[in-house]
Amino acid sequence: MGRNFDYHSLIGDNNPILRYPQLQEAAIDEFSMKKYEDASLNDILKNAGMSKGSLYHHFGDKFGLYLAMMDIIVKKKLSYFYPLMHQINNTSDFFTSLKVIMKSTMDFMLADERMHHLLNRVMEESEEFRNRLYDFFPYDMYARQFSDYICHAVKSGQIDSRYPPELVAKIIEIMFSNLHKLISVGDPDELINIANQVVDIIQHGISGK
After folding, report:
1. Residue 190 CA to chain centroid, in angstroms?
2. What is the CA radius of gyration of the chain?
3. In angstroms, rounded to a whole number, what is the distance separating the alpha carbons of residues 104 and 41?
4. Residues 148-167: what's their mean pLDDT?
């Protein structure tokens, strides 16, 4: 199934999953808990009350369903970040801006932890699967913009030039992706305080000297 299906038709305003909220919820539940290969399409369809025939007609196959669901999640996450990246410019203090971005990451995570976990889980998938997925999404657009910002912070002396910008970007990405391991549900002000401490550690390290 899906061999001749136009997967690009699943991306954008005409994404068919928008018409099936139960399917969207069932898919997010399943894919956020399991890797793609381990996720059960039968369980998703059972929980969504949809037949396989209808799934194949609208989405092509399991990959098409995953793609449609990711289209929703990626747009949701980017809605938190794009306004910030347009506001932040090369004259901004890097670490102050990083705290703003960290808060947006936390806001996205708390809005729906399943979406946050699912996007992180993509990095656990095989390289072949990720590359297939990346053909449909500009995942690297935000990453490139943020990497450019890091490069400017290095040139302006805000980040130690001993460290390659690519390594700095990767470390920050890992810390952002694992915020859920540092922050438990609680008082919003305390959550922001913890997020700010993470940025302070990135900036100053943990040495007592």
Report:
1. 23
2. 19
3. 32
4. 87
